[in-house]
Design a protein that fits this description.
288 residues, alpha+beta, Beta Polymerase, domain 2, Poly(a)-polymerase, middle domain, 10 helices, 7 strands
């Protein structure tokens, strides 16, 4: 996965940092003096970024007793959207605000950023509440650091990156968060195995299982129902791709399984690595 690595001094990282600075400046100007925590989220924070698909997630949390962003979660969500609208086209999602750069008045689809507004539950600044535009509940309780720790301490970061690469190559309709949880669950007790063995293991289990496994939100296992992220339709698609990748790896190597034209021979850790190294720059920056 070396060629998929984004180094701290790369142009990709500089682009991320510049856009994060712009978003933060706009928010702090709109809510001057307010107590706000603004930090990276997503793959940047979790250490799972790959060149072929990287994005920018920015977490914007008001302190628990801060009201200048809004009296309630809905107000915070809408007020942050308003603050960013002069510089970006803002598209509401379930809990995030998807930003597209404005270029001569036209929507710049090359760049999108997800901003997640919310409010800390208390002075410990751990758990936070997010507004929800859809679903049975109007708010969601979460914890960014718990999510980050769950990924970083999983011992399977390399396989998570391979899963992300497969998701992009096959255009899988599964949230990256849900896919990460699936892979971590299936790789319990397998952290000492090679990248090749880990990835083969998860593909075999997914291909052989007709019903979705159960995944839980590590930040709120009892309170957040994730079944909608891994329903039978999503699992069926995941299962079909797992079967396809196993068959292709068996007949033509992991290069073929990852969509490469050349025949790379028998499956091995080196071939998996090479399959991930074929992309020198992102083809769809900021994608999903």
């Amino acid at each position: 996965m070396e060629a998929q690595h984004i180094s701290p001094d790369s142009r990709e990282m500089a682009e991320l940092q510049n856009h994060r600075a712009g978003v933060e400046a706009a928010i702090r100007a709109a809510f001057h003096g307010a107590s706000i925590s603004i930090q990276y989220g997503g793959s940047k924070k979790k250490g799972t970024m790959i060149k072929e698909s990287y994005d920018l997630d920015i977490i914007v949390y008001a302190y628990h007793d801060e009201t200048r962003l809004g009296e309630n979660l809905s107000d915070i969500y809408n007020n942050v959207a308003t603050a960013l609208s002069p510089d970006y086209f803002v598209h509401p999602k379930t809990s995030a605000l998807r930003l597209y750069a404005k270029a001569d008045g036209a929507r710049g689809d090359r760049l999108h950023i997800d901003v997640v507004p919310g409010r800390y539950v208390d002075e410990s600044r751990g758990d936070a509440y997010l507004h929800q535009n859809s679903g049975q509940k109007s708010r969601l309780k979460t914890n960014l650091q718990t999510h980050v720790d769950h990924i970083k301490t999983s011992g399977v970061i390399g396989t998570l990156k391979l899963g992300k690469l497969a998701r992009v190559r096959y255009d899988l309709d599964i949230k990256q968060f849900a896919l990460d949880l699936v892979l971590i669950e299936l790789l319990k007790g397998k952290t000492a195995e090679s990248l090749d063995q880990q990835f083969t293991h998860v593909l075999q289990i997914i291909a052989d299982r007709s019903t979705p496994i159960t995944i839980e939100d590590p930040a709120n296992p009892a309170g957040n129902d994730l079944s909608g992220l891994l329903d039978t339709q999503v699992w069926s698609e995941l299962r079909n791709v797992a079967t396809t990748m196993l068959n292709q790896a068996d007949s033509g190597g992991w290069g073929l399984a990852f969509g490469e034209a050349e025949n790379l021979g028998p499956a091995s850790a080196a071939i998996i690595t090479r399959a991930a190294e074929t992309v020198d720059a992102p083809t769809k920056p900021w994608a999903r």
